[in-house]
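[09:14] KT: can someone run the structure on this one? pasting the chain below
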Amino acid sequence: MFLPKYPDTPTPPPAHTPTTSPPTRRTALPAVSISTGAVVAVLTGGVVLTALLAAVAVSAISVAIAAVVLRSLLRDHHRR
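[09:31] RB: done, structure tokens below
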């Protein structure tokens, strides 16, 4: 169904072949340029977000410890 259709007769070879091959044309790949400012911005953002995450974690642990201590103190106060 999707077979290629070939020509009935082959094309003749070129009459004159040059002795030196023509220079091949290379396509240049686009150069990826990342500015220093972008790298600094990404690193700074990562450091700030990591510091915020650490601050939230320390705060949560502190609140949990304070809740356990207050619960223990209030439980002892109600037993007396």
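[09:33] KT: thanks! The two ends are 93 Å apart (CA to CA).
[09:34] RB: yep, looked fine to me
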